[in-house]
Amino acid sequence: MEQELGLSTHDNRFAYEVLRDYGNMSSATVLFVLQKLMQSLSAADAGAPVLSFAFGPGLTLEAMLLKVVAAETATASIHKAALAATPTAPLVATPSE
Predict the structure, then answer these.
(1) Who's near 1: CB < 8 A, 6+ residues apart?
(2) Are the CB atoms for 43 and 70 separated by under 8 Å?
(3) Which residues neighbour 80 within 8 Å (Cβ) at sequence distance 6 or greater?
């Protein structure tokens, strides 16, 4: 994937760190990688794209294209979704765009 997408091992460093420290935890691995990524972000990273892939057994593939947003923007979106939620509807944060 790195070669095909033109990514370096530095671009993918959080995945390597999680796999080295914890091994393959199946689908949960991507959450640990995202946590490390989020801990490394600063305000200067706002708007940066994040491409996430998780591969499972057989032909399982999880993929997400995310965008870094400022904390106050993310918090506002979560609060907006919480206000719109009803007891019969799941709580879902939707993009504001």
Answers:
(1) 7, 53
(2) yes
(3) 93, 96
- The series of mean pLDDT values per 10 residues for the chain, 97 residues long, is 91 95 88 91 86 80 84 60 51 47
Q: How many CB atoms lie within 10 A of CB 33?
A: 20
**Residue 32 and residue 15: Cα distance in Å, rounded?**
8
Check if the beta carbon of residue 18 is closer than 8 Å to that of residue 37: no
What pLDDT, on a 0 to 100 scale, did the predictor assign at position 66? 87
The residue written with tokens 């719109």 in the block is 84
The DSSP result for 54-79, as a single string, is EE-STT-EEEEEEE---HHHHHHHHH
3-state secondary structure of 50: strand
Q: What is the pLDDT of residue 90?
A: 46
